[in-house]
Design goal:
Layout: H1 2-15, H2 17-56, E1 60-64, E2 80-81, H3 82-90, E3 95-110, E4 113-122, H4 124-130, E5 137-140, E6 149-153, H5 154-159, E7 167-173, E8 179-190, H6 195-200, E9 201-205, H7 206-213, E10 218-219, E11 221-226, H8 232-245, E12 250-254, H9 255-258, H10 260-296, H11 299-307, H12 312-348, E13 350-351, E14 366-367, H13 373-399, H14 403-406
Parallel strand pairs: 4-9, 6-8
Antiparallel strand pairs: 1-11, 1-12, 2-10, 3-4, 3-7, 3-11, 5-8, 6-9, 7-8, 13-14
Length: 410
């Protein structure tokens, strides 16, 4: 009997291809949209985490213990000895890489006008091990160690009407609270993933920044990136103990304790998932509405089947099987289309440069969606289940209608 009903279900699907394609397309579009949405949410979350680790906090950050209290005054004199910190870091297993950095606000005088920018002194070789440094260069080259050169955010250079090869003089307060100036040559333009870095920052060799700021062998902070086999909290505890045993008192914090953005990321993930669920439910209503509409339009067919001796559970089973077959195919097509779309966008990215212009947000201007296998599989089975359940209400109602009454439907 079950085989006969399944065979009849297949025939009914092929008998009216327009109706079947309509129902399957609704399921496919809903499934594809939800897969793409979850991928975009996953990409946004991962992007923000990567930017925080690479440019702001690391997994663990080492600073002078008094720096945070006076941070608003740009306390360049509150530093970390790079050699001592490096010795302590080398004793910790699970440290992937670390970089010393020095940041300072500066003034630029161009053609009678004063502009502001933020300089960052970086150890270029260590930065290459820390993240893909060369990928941010869109024109020219990186500065060389020991030379008065810099790489400038492309947006900052454009706003100041500067080009490769131009020499600019910067003025700032040094570690001994005196004023100093340095002239740097632009050797490269950078496209940092974060909009604020592009519009405000320039990077120069760490040794030149140390000489300029009168802080030889020192850095404002050291960012540490851990491997997957050690949690940042444990690494921070071990590093703090290693520094204390060497007689060096520094502030050691892990990512979650440093940046409010990490908490915001978690909150954002919750909000994004709620939005995803909303669109999920919206997609479900499309599936349910289409499925129920198709069944209610088939009342005359139900009356005919009832007159031929198919009643009750058999009718319900017939429509349930039809819904299962259509939704299984539609959801498969939709999920596959969603995967292909995400695969394409994960390579080309989605450009939000104009939309994020001027925003102070640790999210890249170009986002790359990230597929989540678990959620993708869930979307497929959810779409199939929703479509199948959507057939139960109208089919149960229809199965109770007398053949004569059902045949009156147009």
């Amino acid at each position: 009997m079950s085989f006969r009903i399944a065979k009849t279900a297949f025939k009914n699907i092929s008998r009216n291809m327009r109706r079947s394609i309509l129902s399957g397309t609704a399921i496919a579009v809903a499934s594809m949209s939800i897969v793409a949405l979850f991928a975009l949410i996953g990409g946004m979350s991962q992007d923000m985490k990567n930017n925080l680790r690479n440019f702001y906090t690391g997994d663990v950050r080492v600073r002078n213990k008094d720096y945070e209290e006076y941070e608003r005054f740009n306390p360049v004199h509150l530093t970390v000895n790079i050699n001592k910190a490096g010795e302590a870091i080398s004793k910790i297993d699970g440290i992937e890489s670390w970089v010393p950095r020095v940041s300072f606000p500066s003034s630029i005088y161009i053609d009678g006008s004063t502009f502001s920018a933020i300089g960052t002194g970086v150890d270029l070789e260590r930065e290459r091990n820390y993240f893909d440094l060369d990928s941010i260069v869109v024109a020219g080259r990186l500065p060389e160690r020991g030379k008065k050169e810099m790489i400038m955010g492309a947006v900052l250079a454009r706003n100041l009407h500067l080009e490769l090869g131009d020499k600019i003089t910067f003025q700032t307060m040094t570690a001994d609270r005196s004023t100093n100036a340095i002239t740097l040559k632009i050797t490269g333009l950078a496209a940092f993933p974060v909009a604020s870095l592009n519009s405000k920052y320039f990077w120069m060799p760490l040794d030149r920044a140390q000489d300029f700021l009168n802080m030889p062998g020192e850095a404002q902070e050291i960012l540490v990136k851990t491997s997957h086999n050690i949690k940042p909290l444990l690494a921070a505890e071990k590093l703090s103990a290693a520094l204390s045993s060497s007689g060096t008192e520094l502030e050691v914090k892990q990512l979650e304790d440093i940046s409010m953005m990490f908490g915001l990321i978690r909150m954002a993930e919750t909000v994004y998932n709620i939005i995803g669920i909303f669109f999920f439910l919206l997609g479900s209503t499309v599936i349910i509405n289409t499925t129920m509409m198709v069944i209610f339009e088939r009342m005359r067919e139900i009356g005919t089947l009832s007159a031929l001796g198919m009643h009750g559970r058999e009718l319900v089973k017939l429509f349930l099987l039809e819904g299962t077959f259509i939704s299984a195919i539609g959801a498969a097509v939709g999920v596959a289309a969603g995967i292909l779309l995400v695969a394409y966008l994960s390579k080309t990215g989605i450009d939000f440069t104009d939309a994020m212009s001027g925003m102070e947000f640790e999210m890249s201007s170009i986002l790359y969606p990230k597929l989540n296998a678990g959620k993708t599989i869930f979307v497929y089975f959810y779409a199939v289940a929703i479509a199948c359940l959507a057939t139960l209400i109208p089919s149960r109602k229809a199965s109770k209608i007398q053949p004569v009454e059902a045949l009156r439907y147009i």
